[in-house]
## 1
Amino acid sequence: MASLVRRAASYVYRNGFWYTGRRCIEKVKDRCMKPYDKLWRQLEPKPEELAKQRQDKTVEAAGLISVVIPVYNTRPALLEALADSLMQQTYSNWEACLYDGASTESATKEALDAVSAKDSRIRVVHGEINEGISGNTNLAIDMAKGAWIALCDHDDLLTADALYQVAKTILKDQPDMIFTDEDKVNENGTWYYEPNYKPDYCPDDLRSGNYICHLTVIRRELMQKVGGLRKGFDGSQDHDLMLRCAEATDKIAHIPQVLYHWRTVGASVSHQHIDKCLDAAKRAVQEHMDRTGLKGHVTIERGFLRLHYDTEQSRQIELIVIDNGDPKTWPDFVDRLKGWHTHPVHRMVISPWKESAKDIDGDWIPWPDGGSVYPCINKAVAQSRADVVVILHAGVMMERDDQWLDEMLMYAQRDDVAAVTPLLVDRGGYTTHAGFAVGMDHLASSCGINKLAITGGWHNMLGIVHNVAAVSIACVMIRRDHFIPFDEAYSSGLGAVDWSLHLAKDGFLHVYTPFAKGKVDDKQCCNWLLLHKPANDQDAARYTAAWGDNVHDLSYSRNFSRRQADYSLPKLK
């Protein structure tokens, strides 16, 4: 009991009271109502579908897939369940390479010999010393004969179609690395929960944590090029490997299907030694930054990684304020500007009233009554000579000092980033904007909408830096030489979404950071945050003509409900 109390206290200390409370509620909901377990029973491939896959010989051209599995004192029942999941694969051209790192349990050794006797594709080597997770995995890789290396833990499960879907992706996309979605399964394999519906490859997501995880399949040549796993990173060895692979290739494919069940077993390193794992992850990301020339350092805050990039304090910032003349919020907004002193900031005001520019000692950009704001923004940016532009609606109250500018500038200064958006909440602390997700029922929706921001939301997405598909002009920072003009025919927030997608098409990233935060007057900003559904009809028609009504979002999984971007599961059929 004392041990349980200590673990609970440590979790609260590391993650905070609100995050811990949300996790407890989720655990109770999952255990009692089992919403995802019911969904998975509907989604898992049916026998007739698996039979068709077994008859499909076209995928065999993908070649031999070697599933590498490090083993140490694994319970026989878990090894047998893993072996069964391998033997049930609908793709037949595979091998399993199990390296036993000198297990001391005779039952483990006997179970290994028993499963290898069941299928000649299951190969076992009994090692004389335990090289740890990374070392044992590398020795399992040395056993492999395939052109593809699939990383698998010794107590987890693959879905029956896992390697078939991997083989299809190999033939279709010719990638160097593949990763899939996953979920968790309890120890006796009867309850599935906590699905991890992942974005496609997003570099800022990966720097914040190893969201790629399982199932990962890597081309042998790439594995050899990066040197396999590194022993000094046990606990976060996969994170370190994913970072090094992503540095060496941009051919990374994501299969948005749950193909891997991560079994929750008390002996897991990640469960027992979270501090060791976090330290290894911190070092892995720091070394990644050093290798790639991203100057800065990494810290651990509330159990998650946070990156701090070095910035040039001399950068000139242009603040473009959008003022719609609300007398209730304007005086407080002006008052907040007086506390900004860290950066040299020039100011412009887009407003129907010239007096607004005088209030903040800025240049006036006239906003004709009833006209779109986008021509005014384009004019303001064209006049600017600053390094970085910040567009800020007067209905958004950012923090009273200007440290949020430093936070956003860290990302806006990067050559691969177009726009940076902060976390915006309402007066109650509920999320109104954390970037836009696209491909929704109403075209675009603010990520994490209506979620209490302090709790972190789905997989703590509200609490970590990550990439998003689009941003809002309610508050956004842009490097001026990355700016492209907005389409002036738009009059709602869809204009910013359209602009974001054009920049993404040109290869730029958009970044969300929760470490810059502001409060929103929803009534003033609802048009820019797309809080009204449906959006402006003319804007919706223009957007749909340009992008279609089902545009692919690299940053937000299609496995979530399309109703709004709140990371909720779709309804059961």
## 2
Amino acid sequence: MKRKYLFLIVFLLFNSNVILSQNTYDIVFPNTDSERNQKCQKCFQLFNQKPKEVKFSVKREGTNLYFYVNDKNWFNQLFKNGGDGIAVDVVDKSRYNCELEPLEKTQIKGQLLKPVYASKLRSLLIPKGENNYRVHVGRVSEALAKKELEYNILFLSNKNLCQYYTIYDLESYPWDLLDMGMYLDSLTYDSKKIKANAKEGYILRNKTLKFKIPFEKNKSEYSQEDIKPIYDSLRLTDFNIKSINIKAYSSVEGSLERNIELQEQRANSIVAALQSFQKPKIKTKVSSSENWVEFLNDIKGTKHENLIDLPKYQIKEKLVGELSKGIEPILQHHRKAVLELELEKKDKYKTMSANDLLSKFNLAISAKQLNDANVIQNSIFKKLKNKEISPDFLQKMQIPKQAKFATILNKNSAFKYMLNVRQALIVYNELQALEKLVPKNGEVKYNIVAIKIKMWRFKWLEINETKLKNQINALKNHGIHSSLIFRMMVNFHIIKAENLMRKRDYANKDKSVTYINNNYKNFPLSDYDYLSLAQFFSYYANVDMAVDLLKNKAKSIEIDEDLLFYYLNLTLINKDLTQDSDYRSIMLNAINMNKKRFCKLFNAVEDGGVTFQLLEDEYLKETYCENCNN
């Protein structure tokens, strides 16, 4: 699901009266808070009453700057009188060079452009895209336009500076309903990964196993006892390893180069051991990093806690000699590999042709050999998934419309939907007919409701909200676990919130958002679910909910990279969080995962960053300069 994600806005309070020596035109800078409160009463009131869904920003096209807003009525109220206006402060990133002394706090950070007042703003405001408007508010010089720039907004009331805004941008991902899965042999979920260009459609999720393997200091060999659970798990199943994702971690002492070398050796030794267990080639993805997260967490409350605030290079300098020996009981737990194995069920009919499989399946159905038919059906599904045969092949499978074949019929219909969600209405009708044969079958009922919710989402089906809610809740009477029902109800309110948002019914939309926030804890979430929900909360201007959702995940060394960086996007502007010692370990985790991506957060908004003005925060600037200043 693609969305245009609007800029978020953060209001920066200013207490200093220092103004750079430049032309401030006819703008009045109130000297005290009481003076500002008196002169800006109307402006403050409009901002306080502004629905959180109202968004605005400044964007550059060539050398021209435009103010964008998505609510024309609020815009017209804000710029009602002659002295109400906008001025743009053009800020150059060179102001934050690491070599410079700490910045003097100023109200104006860059080059102030001439204000534009109400009559011009209102008369020149034009529609620009769906539910969006823009007006020209200034121009930057050709020389300045070649630099890394950002554009802060001064809101003026009767020519008094009342509000000063810095724009920051969040990386956008698609978000959708939480995956409800479909019942085949068991509940089968989509295996969507977090990607900025994620596509619609289902891919059957294979079985996954997770293991941790510890390593001794300066050694790449693992203990046979540590890897034995992996072998035992594989021997007890009829699965092959399809892929391995290995995250290798070293303890933080010693040189980075040696640590990386050890991590790669450790990962390769594990891959070689597992590959010897089977003939099919295993796809492998290996990442490696120093384990700063667990190190900083584990030394809290110990006699080594004083190391937490030191730069990384100083910590490494101290972790030698006696200190290294004394802290070894902590460090020994940080040398490990975390494995995630994706397993693929062995297919006894893998080499059989599609036509032979079809004949064998139809014979098994005729003989009422349902277990054999089920195994053959799964082999056919695998060929469909791998696009070895066309989806039309399903029509050739001769399955009588009888209750005894309900499981086979349900699987065929559900798989048809998973292959192509656009078959939803056809499959929905098939399953409703099947439900009449097996009216107490919970799996069939579950699939019907899951498809119905999806069709409501895409407006393929008119539904009665009360009846659908009752239908979801009634699933508990047919053996469906409460966690699955809660997941469906969260999806119900995601759709309802969208519909209410379109109607600008913000109060009832907020009730649905609150329901979601109160109930997502009632069922397990995949990484894709976490990011999708966080995006949902942020889109509806509930950033605090998104932060609360991700904060515990962000502290884990095993967090998905995109989840971690999205959490940073949400929190880097919150000084209460960035000053906390936990936040440093979160940032170091991000640097270890993807240093280039971390440094990019501090680029200009136009260059894919959150904002380089984050570097106003000396704590963030210190981390940035330590890791990103080439």
## 3
Amino acid sequence: MTASNTNTPKATGRDLSGLLANRDVAFAFGVVMILGMLFVPLPPGLLDFGLAISLSLAVLILMVALWIQTPLDFNSFPTLLLVVTMLRLSLNVSTTRLILSEGHNGTAAAGQVIEGFSRFMVGGDFVIGIVIFSILVIINFIVITKGSTRIAEVAARFSLDAMPGKQMAIDADLGAGIIDEHQARERRRVLEEESAFFGAMDGASKFVRGDAVAGLIITIINVLGGILIGITSRGLTIGEAANNYTVLTIGDGLVTQIPALVVSLAAGLLVTKGGTKGAANEAVLSQLGHFPRALYMAAGLCFVVGFMPGFPFLVFAALAGGMAVMGYVMQGQLAEQEKLRIAQEAEAADKPDTPIDPIKDMLKLDDLRLDLGAALVPLINSPDAALPGKVKSLRNLFISDYGFVIPPVRIKDDITLPAMTYAISIHGVETARGELRPGAMMVIEPAGAEVNIVGERTREPTFGLNAIWVDKSRAAEAEGRGLTVVDPESVVTTHLTEIIKEHMPELLTYSATQELIDGQSKDYQKLLADISNNAPVVLLQHVLQALLSERVSIRNLPKIIEAVAEASGTTKNVQIVVEHVRTQLAKQICQALVDENGYVPVVTLGQTWETEMANAISRNGDDVNFIMSPQRVQEFVLAVRKDIQHFAASDQWPALMVAPDSRPYVRSILERVSPMTQVISHNEVHRKASLKTVATIGT
């Protein structure tokens, strides 16, 4: 016997742990049992147990609603509300079955819980019971449930309407560097959950109203049906039938309406909580007690009311004294808090100006930073600020066009800059700057000629075109004259775009290259690792940087890795590897150069220049040198620039086609004078590409 008693707690513990481990099965079983009560008769004992569970769950839900910090902490409430509503309705069906079948045996026919409610709350008098039940239904249906439903509807509509603005605010904070990617994802998750919760609460509030209506209808059916059954089938008099069935029905109505009222109160607490954080006592009592003068005034009024004839003076005097004491205590606490705040501010003011950032953060440089002068700060912190969103959209642009993920752009104010100046920095070094006029529009003459319109003359910072800052009211006039009108945000975005394009190789760091590799399948990661090179990632980085410097997209990274693996087996020269990769990307390169007629326009070199370029190349194994006199280089640049400027005037950018061996050197010569001009070799012309020679340099 002793051994048996010793093992009993262990067995019980194992049973409880097994039950907790299979909570999903237990929950599903509970839902099935609730549905079963609609069809299977329950004995009075089981019915009492079910009614006790219903009441306990209602109290538990109310307590949770009182203590949660935010409504999202109880976002399972709509689901739970459906379950407990179904539980009460199932119990109503079961009690109805017992009342109508056994009500002739007395008020104990439907179990002790119903009888206890009928005797304790209404004293067994069915007239009093009808009045109390009617009042509870009115309170639940007309007051609490109706108000909660309206609040849930408004909260759901406002939450959905505000979602785009909140999303833009998150994007703006992310673009300005106020939050990082992880914080942005967390805020978006909370926003989505909030919208889903209030939307679900809008629908769940209908359960509460429907429950109240169903309880009222079931009660009427039970009373009328019970009296009819008692008279016609059980041989009871009208008085006996009315007493038995009405008392039982009112007890049943009370035992279901009280939990319904409690759950309705919990739902009301949730939807009225809104954006207030903290438990209910913190959200309500702390705010009521935050104004001692209001407590003193309320105490004085209560004390005066106590002197009115017929009013209990002691009751009102006690209330007045309690509120006065509470006001005095709160006034002392507020004074202590104010003293503590002043002391903390004084302590902070006495401290020397020491950097608060850790050394690691101080040494870290922003890959991309946009500094704004004082007058330009509204471009990022005003309610309708569009600059952060436009800057953030650049990431998608570079991903789609170049397969290159630019680092986040940190936007911050800089008091050292002139008020209307912005500066673009890369790796902590200022690369470009420009001036803006907030509230004005920039008007640019597309042909680059002088713009004849009233305004402040300036130069467009990206391409150096003649421009004028004009008032917004003149923007429509300028557009009507065929001029290009640009807002300040677009001026900055365009300038930033061109700067990034120019410095893409610098921004493609080793870490960024590794991230690109990690995004590939394991097969290509293994292929890169198997390259016979001491640092295959560095080799790939140099190849990608070379491609980006000529504005060739690296989106087809698997193809590039394959080409690098092929070329690195026969040479260690990065330039030769790059040329092999470009050959493998011939279709992509030609496709990017196709004009509206389906041709690839090219400018070719005359025989003289082709021969001179070939003779200038000196090879010694993998070492290749290009030897040409500075005078001839200058003459070549002048000859090419003449044709390039001719086509650029009509916004045409044909490629310069040269021999494969001389292509990288011709590109290096033209890189400084015309970085947008593509230089391709004969090997990079895809077999299906249609060439169109538009000019020839020299003879």
## 4
Amino acid sequence: MKRTMAFLLLLAIIIMPAQAIIEPKDIKPVKNVIVMIPDGTSLPTVSIARWLQWYTNPDQPRLNIDPYMCGTVITHSSNAPIGDSAPTTSCYMTGYPSLTGYVSTYPVSDPANDIYPMDPAKAYQPLITVLEAGQLVHNKAAGLVFTCEFPHATPADCAAHSYQRGRYDWIAPQMVHNDLDVVIGGGVSLLSQENENYLLSNGYTIYKNDIQGMRTNKENKMWALFCDREMAYDIDRNPEEEPALEEMTRIAIEKLSRNENGFFLMVEGSKVDWAAHANDPAGIVTDFLAFDRACGVALDFARKNGETAVVIVPDHGNSGISLGVRHCTSYDKLTKDQLFHQLSLYKLTAEEFAKKVNSSPASEVQAIFREYAGFELTEEELMALYNCKDYTNSPIPLGERSSDGLSGSLYSGSLTSFMSQLLTSKTCFGFTTGGHTGEEVFLAAYHPQGTIPQGVYSNIELNQYLCALFGVEGKLDELTDTHFAKHTDVFREYTCEMTPAVDEKGSPTLVVKNKKKQMNIHPFTNIVTMGKKGGEEIRLNSVIVYVDANDTFYLPVELAEYLK
């Protein structure tokens, strides 16, 4: 009993919100805030990346983020210690923990399991983000840089609201209509013609798979998208077709910094997380190093600018990656060469290895591995490859492939999974899972006056720090109430009707009437039209969100004034 009580007390000390280590009143506001998120980065990833960089470049023993390491962050969902990207980044942006899959949206309460008490009456409420607050309160510019597709969880958390992270049809138009100044990343196929037309009509330049166009663009407002969905891993990237995260960050800062009111920029190293899910050490480490180079760009700008703060923090851990694993005999005595030489030879991710062997004759497999991995397959490994169900060039007919008689962990799953396990087996790295993990994540920060967060922060406290940097501390709830009020409250004195969606995946339009006027409210946009024919257009400074779970539109209180 005593041991249980002691454990509960320790747990309470760790996870319950405490007084911020730096009081918001003591944090000096800055003009610009850059938040950099290496998605799914556990601390061992940082260690392995640093060692690999030092091994391959002896004059670079330190990462760009090293001088700015200042603490750790406890990151979790509203009802679970291990979170996914949607609720974890959402908490950084809104100050509220949320549920798996929720994008900057108040969670449905789970009283038996909620880490903090959650209000059932607020379920599904869209929550104003730090980015949106900067736009609304200070007229700051806003930008997003990432290597996933643009409506993916982390970028979406900054500028959209949904209780289903996979509903890109809800999220993408919000990101477009939130009037972000600069967006650079993946997702060409996800920018609909309707959304593209909105951007073009509002002064944006749009580039699709046009790296030279992006580089030569001189305008302030730009969307530059590459690849149908996510961009390539950095190690697999064709530099003539896809820019590095470092370059994307530099271009975004250059454009955003022209705004006299300042800017908010979120940069995500998106695919560290994807490689961690795949247990692919080459992908994890090289994408993190690409992210660190982007951090170098942001930190260099901040040091020279004198009005910019940079906060660098993962949203959660992933994969339980370790430097040292039991199959490496006496791994604690191995040299740098023994630990990192093999990793330094990898020139492709496991995913790209799978594509390459599937696009080449089986006779070229050994040459591919010699060139891109620095070893040849053993006879057993070759037979395991031939027996992969999705190896299209296998000399073994599909109906005759089997893992019977093959031992070890290499012989299950997809071809990409086989490649991940094979490449990892040649190293002394290990993984505990292919999913997210719940350990604290690192925190690094730069502030021109030195008021940086130090120690162990909760994800809620980190939001408080970001709000204080922008001078919007204590204002997010007020902004949420003003810009995301329920339509039943805003239009309680008027007649409201919902016209059905044109298809089963669509959303209704809200029509509000009085004796003389009619307002037509379109979900997931910032556009309202007046009149039965929708002739007069009103453009808002925030988006309208429709939630089907409670059949509610969330919209600005000020809209009622247009009906008077």
